[in-house]
Amino acid sequence: ADPIVEFRNSHRVLFVKKMPQNASIQSIGKGIIGSAAEESGRKIVNWKQGSSYFLPCLSGVACGWVNTTQITEEKSSSGDIDDAKLPSGGDGDSVVLYTMKVSPRDLERNQKEDETQQLSPWVAKAVELFDSMSSVETSDEIMMTSEQSAKVSEIFDLVLT
Predict the structure, then answer these.
(1) Which helix (H) or strand (E) holds 55?
(2) Which of 9, 25, 13 is nearest to 148 (CA)?
(3) Beta bridge partners of 85
């Protein structure tokens, strides 16, 4: 499978809505996507269903993931390969991720504006969440607390309903 790739020109929160137990997701490596160097640099991520992860802005640096869940080959009684299948057989094993993004500039501008401005409930909650995370001094992905993940889930519920 081809990786999902984006540039980290904004802060982002990644929410793992669905992660089948048999899923194997890897982050992209450094270098040109698909090159031997990039593929050998991929690392398995240990995401958990219902958890959220904060990725701080790293202007111009790529981030991305690839689903490397192994495809198994089903053999007939004669030993011939009949079919290739995902381990539990299909679309029900899809990984579902939601992402929220905000640029540092927009976050800073929002912090300076009058707090009485009319924001939709989900935007207000998202701004509060990003405010609490934006001072983190790391370039690495950070697993958010269960309370923060619950807030992220609530935000997506507001958006999707």
Answers:
(1) strand 52-55
(2) 13
(3) 72
Q: Does residue 133 sit in helix, strand or coil?
A: helix
Neighbours of 137 (CB within 10 A): 5
Token digits of residue 153:
């889930």
Q: Are strands 62-67 and 72-75 parallel, antiparallel or unpaired?
A: unpaired
Model confidence, pTM: 0.77
Give me the half-sphere count of Cα atoms (radius 13 Å) on the Cβ side of residue 47. Answer: 32
CA distances from 86 to 47, 76, 90, 95 (A): 19, 17, 6, 13
What are the tens digits of pLDDT across the range 126-154? 888 888 887 777 878 899 999 999 999 99
CA 150 from centroid of its chain's CA atoms:
16
